[in-house]
Specification:
Length: 234
């Protein structure tokens, strides 16, 4: 059985973690991570440490959803990251447990809400851009994520999780996935056609050689069979 790990967070406005820690201990938590950062903060060092340290079979426990995630989309990203590691998330005040069918249904609903929120945001953004263009004020946005592609690849090579990379570089986790996906596609495109042809020829040569060996083996077996079948008995 895995370890039960707790996470508690409060803002820096004088709030205390005592109530959260007490609830976590009652739920069976044997190890916990705590930090004091605003709810909207992207940089959460202790959360990064937790996400990078949990192992398959572990369970992460929080008292409320807003303790571990900034918003619905961030929550789904955290859950997906835990799921990739074989880790369950439990939220005490809402009885959310990602290892149960009820928990999966709740996550599906949250996913739909997150998608709705994103569509509304994009719609408002498009309206704002159209208005700015009409007024001659739109200059576009700097490609911050693409500009940090090398940093993304460097951190990924060191074994950091997608979410951890995104938070450290101040970009969206979707951008991290896209950069890594593009790199993988670029590697495939960079393989010379001559190498692919050579590889194909090698496979053909190996096939011919294998067939020759099989034929030789069959001939030897037949010779042995003939010898045993027709050699004088007794």
């Amino acid at each position: 059985m895995g370890e039960i790990v707790g996470y508690a967070r409060d803002s820096t406005t004088g709030q205390k973690l005592d109530v959260q820690l007490e609830a976590l201990e009652k739920s069976g938590v044997t190890k916990h991570f705590t930090e004091k950062v605003p709810g909207v903060a992207r940089n959460r060092p202790q959360l990064h440490t937790l996400l990078n340290s949990v192992r398959e079979g572990d369970t992460v426990v929080v008292t409320k959803l807003d303790r571990i995630a900034r918003n619905t989309r961030h929550l789904l990203e955290v859950v997906e990251q835990l799921k990739e590691r074989g880790v369950t998330l439990k939220v005490l005040n809402s009885n959310l447990d990602t290892s149960t069918s009820r928990g999966e249904i709740m996550l599906t609903m949250l996913g739909a809400i997150a998608e709705f929120e994103r569509e509304m945001m994009l719609e408002r953004q498009a309206e704002g851009i159209a208005k700015a263009k009409a007024e001659g004020k739109y200059k576009g946005r700097k490609p911050t994520a693409r500009a940090k592609a090398n940093d993304v690849l460097r951190l990924a090579a060191k074994g950091y999780t997608r979410q951890s990379i995104a938070d450290q570089l101040g970009i969206g986790v979707a951008s991290v996935y896209r950069i890594l996906k593009d790199q993988k596609a670029e590697k495939k495109r960079s393989v010379p056609k001559s190498d692919l042809k050579k590889s194909g020829n090698n496979r053909t040569k190996k096939t011919v050689a294998t067939r020759n060996k099989e034929k030789l083996s069959d001939d030897r077996q037949q010779s042995l069979f003939d010898f045993l079948e027709f050699s004088p008995k007794g």
